[in-house]
Every structure is written in structure tokens, then in C-alpha cells.
Amino acid sequence: MASTSQCKYCGSTLSSEDQYCPGCGAPNEGYIADTERRVFMPQTIEELKEYCAERGMPLLKMRFFIGEDYREPKAFGIYRDGSNFIVYKNKANGQRAVRYEGPDEAFAVSEIFAKLLEECHNRGIYPDGKMPEESRPAARRSTKKNASIRGSVLFLIIFLIFSGISDLVTNHQHRNDGYYSIGDGMVYYLYGTDWFYTYDTNDAGYWYDADDFPVADYADYSLGENWNADWGVSDFKNSSTWAEITESHSSSSSDYDSWDSDDTDWDSDW
């Protein structure tokens, strides 16, 4: 697991995976090369979902559908069909090109993961931390006076305190997130203060907006945070609804804001 520290030149937060400071470009003395650490490589669809979520990737905007057999044009995806895993690309004309179909989940995930990183790298985004050598900023030492450095550190401290308060508020708002049901074939999901529902005959697997839960004391009807296939409904966190709300609720002004899916070559097989 990566450790964090502060740049001694500008006060920016550094990860042990950052060879250079993202703030000022100075070398990171705490950098640990890929060969000296276990580089995380998703092996399952669930691990790939977690990888993308941790990095704030707006998958719907990026046109990547992880764990979903998405049928519309302009899409990359991976899903499980019985004992096989299918990796696909839907071209601009709607034609599907299957990259892999077989029982090896790790290989299937590696194929879609490589494509995901390729699309990111093509846009100058490096979620894996592997910026090409020629694109890395030249190292430079800060020449600011001590007062300026102290000001930067003070600003960073204030920012961290504010971020901590924001995290507490967010955690409080989402403390009851999870699945709920009164046993009528309908399953609800609570996300913050928003309710969504689906039902066991909903073949599309889509989750719809709900005004509220049918019972005031909804806590008594909790099914837990984790989805169970025995309920007969689709996984909320594996739905296009989830992708839409997590993208719209994202508080980060990430590098993905300017992502344009039309920049992808949708006419090629892969």
C-alpha cells in the first residue's frame, strides 16, 4: 500500500508512487519504484470496479461498462456469462467486436484494464502513475522565501482540516446507505437521502427514482450494504443508475472532467 508524505519544497501531498511532486516537479525522496513494490493489478471484475471507484473514474462518461452487457454503440465492457467472461467493444455503428470470451477472469480483466489505461494515457491521464519519461516535468527546487513556504503549509493545514470536516459530513449522510425491502418483490436502495427501487421482473435491471421508502421506520427493513443474488434483482452498484449518480455526486475536479468519448477510435475492432 502506498504511503504519503509532504513535499519539502512546496508542501504538496506526495504518494510513495509519485516519482516527482505533482505540485512543483521536485524529485520525491520517498518514491518507491515499481520493481520494489507490488503494483496492484485487478484480477477480478469486482477488483476492477474498486480500482476505478478509488480513482474517481466516471465510467459512464468514459464509456466503460464493468460487469455489464451494455448493448448501445460506443462502449467498452466486460461481464460474466455463465462460466465465461466476455470482453467487448461496441463500435460506432453498433457492431460488437469480442476481444475475449473464455473462463479466465484474470486474463479478461487484464484485457479491459489495459484498454482502460490506454484510453487514459491517450488523454494525458495516468491513474497507474506511469507517466512517460518525456512527459514528466523537469525537477526544480523551490526558490520561495521561508514566509511563502510557511504560507503554503498553513494553507495546506487549513485545507486538510476543512477536508476532514467535509468527510465527516459525507460519512454521516451516507451512514445508512444500503438495500431495503418490505418483502413485496420490490427492493430499494438508499444513497444518502435519495431512494431508488427495482423489482424482480425488471429484465432491464435499471433502478428507478423513488420518492421515499413505503415505511417510515425503514431501518427495520434493512437487507444490508451488500447485494445478494437470491433477492432476484440486479446489483445496484453494477447498474447504469449507480454510474450516473456517483458521477454526478463526485466532488473532485479530476482530470476526467474534459473527457470526450468521441476522441476514441470507435471504428476499429479494439
What do you see in this structure?
With 270 residues, the protein is of the alpha+beta class. Among the domains are: 45-127, no CATH class; 178-255, no CATH class. The chain has five helices and eleven strands. Strands 10-9-8-7-11 form a five-stranded antiparallel beta sheet, with no helix packed on it. Strands 3-4-5-6 form a four-stranded mixed beta sheet. A hairpin with a 2-residue loop joins strand 8 (186-191) and strand 9 (194-199). The radius of gyration is 22 Å and the shape is globular. It starts with a strand and ends in a 21-residue tail after the last helix. The model is unreliable at 34-39, 132-145 and 249-253 (pLDDT under 50).
Overall geometric form? globular
CA-atom Rg in angstroms: 22 Å
| Class of secondary structure makeup | alpha+beta
- Percent strand: 15-25%
Number of strands: 11
- Compute the number of helices: 5
Show unreliable segments.
34-39, 132-145, 249-253
